[in-house]
Amino acid sequence: MERIAIFIDNSNIFKGFQKYGVQVDYEKLKNLISRGRSLEGIYLYEGVVYPISPAKANWYKELSNRSGYEIKATFDKIISKGAIEKKVDIHMAIEIISLGYENIYDTAVLVSGDGDFVPVVKKLLDMDKMVEIWAFKYSLANALIEKVGSENIYYIDDILNEIKL
Hints:
Rossmann fold
């Protein structure tokens, strides 16, 4: 059975959920992406402002306890002119490649359309790992499509009705 690990860039996809005005059931999202494959881990990455709000802390706790998500929150750092540096992509990249080297999964499922992940995808393909991308059409980098092929791209836009709360 195919072993997968799901890596969610929550800051990236949450913008899409806001754009379409939907609240999402992350348990449904997990089940839809897994599609009966062996889920070896599901990791949600997000930059957060400290202190974490009670609502956000409860949401993380529920995702972790009820749905098996491993929460990978990093605290935002304010840099020049009020810009926020989250370092989420770097954290994700290191873990995706590390878990690949540890042979935890056969397929890395990246839930993000961010073109910053192209070098990660290239490395995974060099390691003979399969890569699947789940992203919104409007935010999917063409370089990701070119790297993994359109047959390995899935659009969150197409499943919104199935994952709504």
